[in-house]
Amino acid sequence: MSGHDENPIVTSQRASWNSAAWAWEKWDAWLEQNMGVMNDRLLAAAGVAEGHQALDLGSGTGQPALAAARRVGPKGGVTGVDVAGEMLEVARKKARALGYGNVTFHVCDACSLPFEDGLFDAAVSRFCLMFTPDPRKAAREVFRLLRPGGVFAAAVWADSARNPTFTLAQRVLNRYALVPALSPDAPGVFRMAKPGTISGILRDAGFAQVNEEEAPLQYTYASGEMYFENFMDMAAPLRPIYLGLTPSQRQEARGAMIEEIERYRRGESVEVPGVAIVARGVKPARA
Amino acid sequence: MPVDKELLEILACPKCKGELELTENQDGLVCRACKLVYEIRDDIPIMLIDEAKPLNE
């Protein structure tokens, strides 16, 4: 530790997401099936094309960086960054298994990125900005790294009422333990859910032609049990709260979450809707 | 994908955005201005200011 510049949010988020890396690896196929649609949407919005140099802010276990690597091809390159090295380790393994030589990963704080100005043709970020210590600073960093004319497309979560996979678990856990109430400025899942928040941040960072739109998602689970296992494995911020309950509380909470999510059953599977916000902005040709 | 020359050209110190050099055994990236070494672990550079080690010369 160098001592100065220490950011407790970065430190705790690193620990939290590193501890969930195994779960994201375990659920990799499910993530591809249920979230892959968001990769395509972001890559299209950012105009990622063959030969491009693309940045992925918050790659986690490799998405959308690997989808971007496919799109830019061998003449292009993808730089994936995340605060959690253990998540990137999974991403790197996947890149190797796929034989992609055009993607590199770096452990970074989104608010101080270690690259020179104007390097990238496009940047994407899937469900990362709302967790960063300072999304405004992160957006300014992405702006700095894009070449003039470069496009940034980012997805964040829309309001809690329309994202029951999160709220259901939170509501149940609240019965047993105090899930710390987040101030609107604190990093969290729904910090940028209010319409206009992310587009305002992009505009303030200097982006032009900014727009945001809603993007529906659907999560498919074979059963309520699968939802419980899937969500509690991967939800880095909530998992410690669940694990802190007594064994009988845990059993009860698990039962309650399963019962509630089963309301979304459609025949053979449980189909839970979700809504994201996708924002896009262009770095002006002459900034 | 080890850190190669091409990558070195695009990487900058997260603190001062200045140039970085590869350490002799290629296990870290040095910022001479900030006197910090950023470790490279399993081919993944740890570009966090808090995690950087002081440069001993």
Question: Secondary-structure blueprint of this entry?
Answer:
The complex is a heterodimer of chains A (287) and B (57).
Chain A: H1 8-19, H2 21-26, H3 28-45, E1 53-57, H4 65-72, E2 77-82, H5 85-98, E3 103-108, E4 120-126, H6 135-145, E5 146-157, H7 164-174, H8 197-205, E6 208-221, H9 224-234, H10 239-243, H11 247-261, E7 265-266, E8 269-282
Parallel strand pairs in A: 1-2, 1-4, 2-3, 4-5
Antiparallel strand pairs in A: 5-8, 6-8, 7-8
Chain B: H1 5-10, E1 21-22, E2 28-31, E3 36-41, E4 44-47, E5 53-54
Nearest-angstrom radius of gyration of chain A? 19 Å
β-strand amount of chain A: 15-25%
Which series of helices and strands of chain A comes N to C?
HHHEHEHEEHEHHEHHHEE
Poorly predicted spans of chain A: 1-5
When the domains of chain B are counted, the total is: 1
Total strands of chain B: the figure is 5
Helical content of chain A stands at 40-55%
| Number of alpha- plus pi-helical segments of chain B | 1
Terminal Cα span of chain A: 36 Å
Radius of gyration of chain B: 10 Å
Largest sheet properties of chain B:
5 strands, antiparallel
CATH class group of the domain at 8-160 and 184-217 and 275-282 in chain A: Alpha Beta
Q: In percent, how helical is the residue content of chain B?
A: 10-25%
SSE class of chain A: alpha/beta
- Counted beta strands of chain A: 8
For the sheet with most strands of chain A, the description reads: 8 strands, mixed
Strand percentage of chain B: 25-35%
Oligomer: heterodimer
How would you state the average pLDDT of chain B, rounded? 89
CATH architecture of chain B: Single Sheet
Mean pLDDT of chain A, nearest integer?
A: 93
What does this structure look like?
The complex is a heterodimer of chains A (287) and B (57). Chain A has 287 residues and is of the alpha/beta class. Chain A has a domain at 8-160 and 184-217 and 275-282: 3-Layer(aba) Sandwich (Rossmann fold). Chain A is built from 11 helices and 8 strands. In chain A, strand 4 (120-126), helix 6 (135-145) and strand 5 form a beta-alpha-beta unit. In chain A, helix 6 crosses helix 8, helix 7 packs antiparallel against helix 11 and helix 9 (224-234) packs across helix 11 (247-261). The longest helix of chain A is centred in the first third of the chain and has 18 residues, at 28-45. Chain A is globular. Mean pLDDT of chain A is 93; it is low at 1-5. In chain B, strands 1, 2, 3, 4 and 5 form a 5-stranded antiparallel sheet that branches. The radius of gyration of chain B is 10 Å and the shape is globular. Chain B has one helix at residues 5-10; strands at 21-22, 28-31, 36-41, 44-47, 53-54. Chain B has a single domain, classed as N-terminal domain of TfIIb, CATH 2.20.25. In chain B, strand 2 and strand 3 (36-41) form a beta hairpin. With 57 residues, chain B is mostly beta strands. The longest helix of chain B is centred in the N-terminal third of the chain and has 6 residues, at 5-10. The A-B interface holds A 1-2, 4-7, 10-11, 14, 79, 81, 83, 85, 88-89, 92, 95, 101, 103-109, 112-117, 119 and B 1, 7, 9-15, 17, 20, 36, 38, 41-54. Strand 3 (103-108) of chain A pairs parallel with strand 4 (44-47) of chain B, so a sheet runs across the interface.
